[in-house]
Design a protein that fits this description.
Mean pLDDT: 79
Number of strands: 8
Helix content: 40-55%
Order of helices and strands: HEEHHHHHHHEEEEEEHHH
Radius of gyration: 30 Å
Strand order of the largest sheet: 3-4-5-6
Structural class: alpha+beta
Strand content: 5-15%
Shape: extended
């Protein structure tokens, strides 16, 4: 959006002179000679054809993603088995060279020395051997800002039972979509072994605005019905309200259920309006939902262990910092240009020699 905005704000060279103020493309076309405008229309038709070819390209990319998802699947299944403790990896599978190994060894030595005195004071106890990697997915949820914003304290006990998250792509010949599958072990909160969220996609130029096409976009999503155990639904809360009878003046207490903040509202999303008419809050909520679904698909599921250890978070933060630095530089350059303009206005009557700027 900002890039397009910047392009539109630049002065444009048009037949008959130069314009120092922004011009709309409609005005631009109206100023063209009829014969030139006719050729521009031909170029637009070519551009629409390019957009349709680009749409076919993304359809084939989707097929490639589906193909390679099947190749990744055995690794993801092994990851699930290790996380849940179903499988214990071999010594060879656990070999890993880390740049932080020396730091970790020193930390272990410090811990050992600190525990010597405690060990002398009490009898040696058998070391507990936790099953798999406890709270693997919950740790990821709590570490990633986008997910922790949805997470409530009452969700945490449930997410401790989350075994795996998988992405499934639509089959050939079906409308383009992907499904997030959240697999749970038996728990005391709901009967579902799996909760799903389907994201429907569109990869074709809009008939009314073909030039806006930039690749596949999520257009809608569907959640699933959660079969909650009685009294365990964390997406609602019970409140008590006193009501006074207008005539008799008697007071009664009424209990009712109202919506409650919870990550599990993720599975009951706002539906996109077919007519496209939604209020601003609903549009923002739906756009955020689409962003979260995309983030699960592109980042969380493929790189889960790196979000668990925090390494992926460091990469994300570095990327954000670089973007911020570039943005600051652009802003400073703009301010510098404004200063130059002001200086030019001040010295209009006495032009000064142009200074050479060293590169």
């Amino acid at each position: 959006m900002e890039a397009n905005k910047g392009k539109g704000e630049q002065g444009m060279q048009i037949p008959g002179g130069q314009m120092d103020r922004p011009v709309s493309f409609h005005f631009m076309e109206s100023m063209l000679p009829k014969v030139v405008k006719r050729r521009v229309h031909a170029l637009k038709r070519l551009q629409v054809q390019c957009a349709h070819i680009e749409a076919k390209f993304y359809e084939e990319v989707h097929e490639l993603e589906r193909k390679y998802a099947a190749l990744y699947q055995p690794m993801f299944e092994k990851r699930r088995d290790v996380v849940t403790g179903t499988v214990e990896p071999t010594d060879a599978e656990c070999e890993w060279h880390s740049d932080r190994e020396e730091e970790e060894e020193l930390a272990e030595q410090v811990k050992e020395k600190a525990s010597i005195e405690d060990a002398k004071k009490e009898e040696a106890k058998p070391e507990e051997d936790p099953k798999g990697i406890p709270e693997f997915w919950l740790t990821i949820f709590k570490s990633v800002d986008m997910l922790s914003d949805m997470l409530q304290e009452h969700d945490e006990a449930i997410l401790k039972h989350l075994k795996d998250i998988q992405v499934k792509f639509s089959e050939p010949g079906q409308p383009m979509s992907f499904t997030l599958e959240f697999h749970f072990e038996p728990n005391g909160y709901f009967n579902n072994a799996m909760l799903t969220k389907v994201y429907k996609m569109k990869s074709e130029p809009d008939a009314t605005e073909p030039f806006s096409f930039e690749g596949p976009e999520i257009i809608d999503c569907e959640g699933c019905q959660i079969d909650w155990h009685k009294g365990k639904d964390v997406t609602v809360k019970t409140i008590k309200k006193k009501q006074k009878h207008k005539g008799r003046g008697t007071v009664r207490t009424v209990t009712k259920q109202v919506p409650n903040d919870s990550f599990f509202n993720f599975f009951n999303p706002i539906k996109a309006s077919p007519e496209g008419e939604m209020d601003e809050d609903s549009e923002f909520t739906l756009a955020t939902d689409f962003e979260i679904g995309h983030f699960f698909r592109e980042r969380i599921v493929p790189r889960a262990v790196l979000y668990f250890t925090g390494e992926a978070l460091e990469d994300d933060e570095s990327f954000e910092e670089e973007e911020m630095e570039e943005g600051d530089e652009e802003e400073q350059d703009d301010e510098g240009d404004d200063d130059d303009d002001d200086e030019g206005d001040t010295n209009k009557e006495q032009p000064q020699p142009a200074e050479c700027k060293q590169q």
